[in-house]
């Protein structure tokens, strides 16, 4: 054999060994990292009947500001204890032996033990390992032990309507609400996997890594910051408790990226202790499903449309007579008082209904209607939560002028809170319509991942210059008008507006004593990190949103400034 042949043979042997080494490394990676838990489960099958598939599901994580992941939804492990009545000889003695370890009603136990035609009767589930070991040590004939896993939510009530929960659809556990439902195809697991041999599994795993179907299973990492979420939930529940509101909710969002840091709803429920037999409406998320007439927080959108279209400027003036008759109906300012000659800045400062009605008359009702639609108020936002509703702007197809006048201050048209937040974010971010979202990353079981961003999908709806001007005007509202300027912050600019809306009667018209209060604001005004939105439905004993929501809003702003160490901007 010549030297060249010898070298080629050595190279071939080296390549073969290198290939085998790579295969072994891949195999070890999949066994220890990707499928490690599966093999742990197989080792535990000594406690599990052969036909039993242990429940498996992907995790949902929150993420702290430092990047640390905290579990929002995970799996808890324990044991299911059952009996085979055919093997129970003395049910009285069996009950005496286990009653000190398990909480089970005596009559129920005897009734199940007497089912002699059955081979399986459950007597306890979610049993901790320590208790299981004690029962196992009793070595009682007819006692069966199976390992089980179930969905567990470490925060109990935290983000309940965002997370949703897992429940039975016929005989299969699936996501029923919230992220659990929306990302069912990512979080669900196929546990019916037959054994394959060593090399078949190696090449199967490699093939699955490259296969689009295998990349669907994974864990999801949300934009929810748990410290912010818990703080905001306390703020929202505090408002509901103080004013005995029917419902209170809020959203904290990055108005530029659409990432949602917190979504709070009161009342809420405990994800680990609820019953599906209770009023199911509490499981719904009114922030994406509910429709409301939002009132005066819509006025900045009207004003921005007027400025963007060239119909008005901040200095444009009109004569406020205190009332306006259109189509046989009369609209008023909130206090039914004439304001005389005022400019557009004062329209926002004093929240004048007649002022924004004037803006509509200057730009024309069709132009106004087109702007309101361009804000996406009658569309779904695309948020990654199920059952999203869309707004109702049918009044903006009416031939009557009155419908456009009332819509200018947020009455007669309805929208979801999340669509409202998206529209208001365009005032803060340079005029772009963002995609609000909850999930920022998916880690697939294949080892791949997907970082989710919708920044490039944002569309321009008003000019950047309009956004800057309306931000300046709303900053003046906080500095001079909101609580007479007493809540403004010396070193931080804040742009904000309150809203108070009458609640519509089911048969037409409005209640005289039922209100929806809303509040939104963003900061720093010209390069905002956060937009905060709050609303409360039917607060008792108080009339205006400036009275109910100003303090919760300002407290939230101060918390966010301190928590994120936001530098002063003035």
Query: Within the CATH hierarchy, at the fold level, what is the topology of the largest domain?
Result: Beta-lactamase
Distance between the termini: 84 Å
* Structural class assignment: alpha+beta
CA gyration radius, whole angstroms = 30 Å
Described by strand count, sense and barrel closure, the largest sheet is: 7 strands, mixed
For CATH, the homologous superfamily of the largest domain is named as DD-peptidase/beta-lactamase superfamily
Domains, number:
2
CATH class of the largest domain, named Alpha Beta
Strand runs, count = 20
| CATH architectural name of the largest domain | 3-Layer(aba) Sandwich
Query: How much is the average pLDDT?
Result: 90
The fraction of residues assigned to DSSP E strands is 15-25%
- Residues in helix, %: 25-40%
Low-confidence stretches: 39-51, 192-210
- Basic shape: globular
Total count of helical runs of at least 4 residues: 20
What can you tell me about this protein's structure?
- With 570 residues, the chain is an alpha+beta fold.
- The protein folds into two domains: 80 residues, Alpha-Beta Complex (Penicillin-binding protein 2a (Domain 2)), CATH 3.90.1310; 338 residues, DD-peptidase/beta-lactamase superfamily (Beta-lactamase).
- It has 20 helices and 20 strands.
- The strands form six sheets. Strands 1, 2, 3, 4, 7, 15 and 16 form a seven-stranded mixed sheet that branches.
- The protein starts with a helix and ends in a 7-residue tail after the last helix.
- The relative contact order is 0.11.
